[in-house]
Write a structure and sequence with these properties.
This protein is of the alpha+beta class. The chain has 16 helices and 10 strands. This is CHK kinase-like domain-containing protein.
């Protein structure tokens, strides 16, 4: 059921699109396990007595009091609106002004929003109408999809790197409100710190038969918090990142076998950070063992996009962001992604019948992070994918 404000916005947008005498229907737009910080609805507008129809996506914030107490829901919606209304349009103008070789265009249009507390929502275009599809979140992606996403992340990050050089005041204006609001939330960080011990315990159980991996994880546990602090150091926060680059926040379009395109969804965790925070988050959630083993190829694809974009606008890529610096960030920070994956991959691989919403996880005042990272009977697929990630990191001496 739409609120009066949501109904008025849908009607306004519909009339702008040529609808006159129309009906509005609302359906659930996602399944359990697909989205956590809110509820997704599919809005269909149909002109009466005609075949004319248009679909929209309505994203509504979770209103449950206990969830909002434990998670910065309002900050998340405020951040996403800021990205859609300010950051991404500024990126578009900048790319056009300087004729950037590979402009970043992989985002949808925001049609309207509300940031009234406990009633936050976003109304967006439904790109399924344009032929975009979402992949199965429980499956790894193939070489073609991995390469495309890495290139698109290169396009996204190159805009920040170029803007810092060519329009530093504009860039500083954008990032002044793009700190990591999770890191500033005491309740969240207290829960995260507690959960890190759980993730190390799970990781050690997964590799208990491998002495080399066990030793590497045990030693890394002692320096983990220092690595987190370094990741947040100003000198390492080089670009505006997506922040939540996993399968369900991407859609792909298949125009023909040689023409694949994509679009990023959900900018709620976007922030200024090391570019590899997007790379390891995506890579470890989507890559199979062969692709993990070939990770350097995909890092080079990512970097080549950045290099060509920077050079196309007259910037010296070697001076601004040399490949050596990307390697240093990967070698230093990718290990954080391993331990994020311990919990996140578990959630991504859950069947709908086993998935729990944040409301269910916090029922009775339970701590959300305790439930999210809870040790349980893991699937063989999860165990194998986590071992593939850990063993790759250990073999390459990243841990």
């Amino acid at each position: 059921m739409l609120t009066d404000e949501q109904t008025a916005l849908v009607e306004q947008i519909s009339k702008k699109n040529g609808f006159e005498n129309f009906s509005i229907t609302v359906e659930q737009g996602s399944n359990k396990g697909d989205n956590y910080l809110g509820n997704i609805f599919l809005i269909t507008v149909k002109e009466n007595d005609e075949n004319l129809k248009k679909c929209f996506i309505l994203k509504c914030a979770e209103s449950n009091e206990e969830v909002r107490k434990q998670m910065p829901i309002h900050d998340a919606y405020e951040r996403e609106v800021f990205l859609y209304q300010t950051v991404l349009p500024t990126f578009e103008e900048f790319q056009k002004k300087y004729n950037m070789k590979y402009p970043f265009k992989a985002f949808i249009k925001l049609l309207g929003s509300s940031l009234e507390k406990n009633k936050e929502f976003l109304l967006m275009e439904n790109i399924k109408d344009q032929g975009f599809k979402m992949l199965n979140r429980k499956k790894t992606m193939d070489e073609k999809h991995i390469a495309l996403v890495m290139k698109e992340l290169g396009k996204l990050h190159s805009v920040s790197l170029a803007m810092k050089q060519l329009e530093p005041d504009t860039y500083q204006h954008l990032i002044k409100n793009l700190d990591d609001y999770f890191m500033k939330n005491k309740n969240v960080m207290d829960s995260f710190r507690k959960s890190f011990g759980i993730t190390f315990d799970i990781a050690l159980k997964l590799v208990k038969d491998n002495p080399k991996a066990t030793k590497a994880i045990t030693e890394y546990k002692q320096e983990f918090h220092k690595t987190l602090e370094d990741l947040e150091d100003e000198k390492n926060r080089l670009v505006i990142v997506h922040g939540d680059a996993w399968c369900n926040n991407m859609m792909f379009k298949y125009e023909d076998p040689n023409n694949l395109s994509m679009c990023f969804l959900d900018w709620q965790i976007s922030k200024i950070a090391s570019p590899v925070s997007d790379l390891f988050y995506y890579f470890f959630s989507a890559a199979s063992k062969p692709i993990l083993d070939d990770h350097r190829i995909y890092l080079q694809l990512y970097y080549k996009t950045i290099q060509e974009n920077l050079e196309s606008v007259g910037c010296n890529a070697q001076a601004i962001f040399p490949f050596k610096l990307l390697q240093e960030h990967w070698e230093k920070f990718a290990k954080i992604g391993v331990f994020m994956s311990v919990g996140m991959l578990q959630a991504f691989l859950k069947d709908e019948k086993d998935a729990k919403s944040f409301v269910e996880m916090t029922e009775g005042g339970q701590n959300l992070m305790d439930q999210f990272w809870k040790d349980e009977e893991f699937s063989e697929e999860y165990c194998q994918r986590m071992r593939d990630i850990i063993f790759m990191m250990v073999e390459n001496k990243y841990i």
